[in-house]
What does this fold into?
Amino acid sequence: MDVVQAFYQALNRGDAAAIAALYAHDCTVEYVFEDGAAVYETREVVAGKWAEEIAARAGGLPGGHRIDVSRIGGVQTGWGWVRADWVSASGTGYSHFWIEGGLIRKHRTIRQNDLGSRFPAGSSTPVSVRRENDSRGRFPIVGIGAVILTEGKVVLVKRRNEPLAGQWSLPGGGLELGESLEAGTAREVLEETGLVVTVGPMIEVFDRILLEADGSVRFHFVLVDYLCWPRGGRLQSGSDVEAVTLADPGDLAAWRVAEKVRAVVARALELQRTSRGTDD
It folds into this structure.
């Protein structure tokens, strides 16, 4: 799956040489390119086609991205197969990759051209695994959060619902079944803040356990926070939030955010200093 992730990262950079290096010499690609033949063979031929594709088509998604991947997972029909679900400026679809010896031997694409759906029809649409995790439940929920840094400020949201109703915190929510951590972070940010973000390095993983007065567990979250930078969209209140704002990282106490949030933001600022990302 790392090879497939590297493929899409190179595609979004417009790096044809890096893309070509991920294919085996005797590779076959089927229905990958919107124009031209249905099938291309050998690394040399595929490399030339990718160079043409990148030169002819600019990235049409926010931030100049060519494609956003919602999920990358192994396919259990045989060893080596990987499936990636994605959305591009022209529609949605999914691709199958046969990985052998760390290289792509076969690559085929199926397009749905359904711009209204983040997850392609015919794929395993992510099913929410959010449960009523109150005193009756015994299943911790995986949550994702985002420290979004832009123009020297951090994005905060005011929660509408429990937990943390009425409090200011970081954007985030529950991970959905079949969804990668990075894709879930990007989705939650878009839903809550209207921003399209680049999901950067992981900041921290920690527990948050909230108890009832009698000591029983009301909520148990395992939270994964990521450093993110906006690359499109418009800051606005979305689902599950009453308001959204840009706050000075040095003045978070005035927003009455939890001490843990302040610590995570501080780590994010330090991580940004050593990261190759920018807050564009």
User: Anything to note?
Assistant: The helical segments are 2-13, 16-21, 43-56, 181-193, 259-274. The domain at 141-274 is CATH 3.90.79.10 (Nucleoside Triphosphate Pyrophosphohydrolase).
